[in-house]
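lol forgot to send this yesterday, sorry. struct tokens for the thing we talked abt
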């Protein structure tokens, strides 16, 4: 009898918890954070200046972020050459995302001549640094391309 009572009580507590969490996460009670008052070029210039300053100070993830700005071209002018050099700098400091992006740029020929051997090498390095998507790319390219004395060929 006591087991049945405890089971019913457990079910009631679970249902109450689910209902309470649903109520608190509904849009009626959701907390809206204030949005920044400044939009446009001023905010992006601040991001660019901060990334540049921190990259020069030796923070590899900031070099990666600055390279992403140049790669996307949405906030500043698109420049694959600058993006590639920043991604290489980030990769050299042990940033797996930087190595992954260098691999992508070699794979698709963005800012550099398309080179599958270098792409595979960079994906492998990124994979060794812990980026799973780079491991997937590495295995995919290794299965598609055969190795000859000059590198990878189709």
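and heres what i got for the seq, position by position
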């Amino acid at each position: 009898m006591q087991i049945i009572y405890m089971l019913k009580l457990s079910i009631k507590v679970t249902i109450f918890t689910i209902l309470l969490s649903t109520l608190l996460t509904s849009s009626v009670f959701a907390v809206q954070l204030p949005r920044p008052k400044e939009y446009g070029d001023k905010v992006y210039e601040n991001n660019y200046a901060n990334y540049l300053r921190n990259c020069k100070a030796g923070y590899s993830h900031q070099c990666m972020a600055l390279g992403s700005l140049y790669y996307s071209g949405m906030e500043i002018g698109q420049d694959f050459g600058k993006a590639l050099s920043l991604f290489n700098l980030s990769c050299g400091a042990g940033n797996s995302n930087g190595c992954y992006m260098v691999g992508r740029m070699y794979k698709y020929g963005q800012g550099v001549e398309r080179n599958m051997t270098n792409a595979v090498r960079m994906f492998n390095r990124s994979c060794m640094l812990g980026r799973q998507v780079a491991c997937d790319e590495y295995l995919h390219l290794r299965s598609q391309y055969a190795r000859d004395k000059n590198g990878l060929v189709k």
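Helices lie at 2-25, 41-56, 60-72, 80-92, 96-108, 116-128, 132-144. anyway ping me if u want another try
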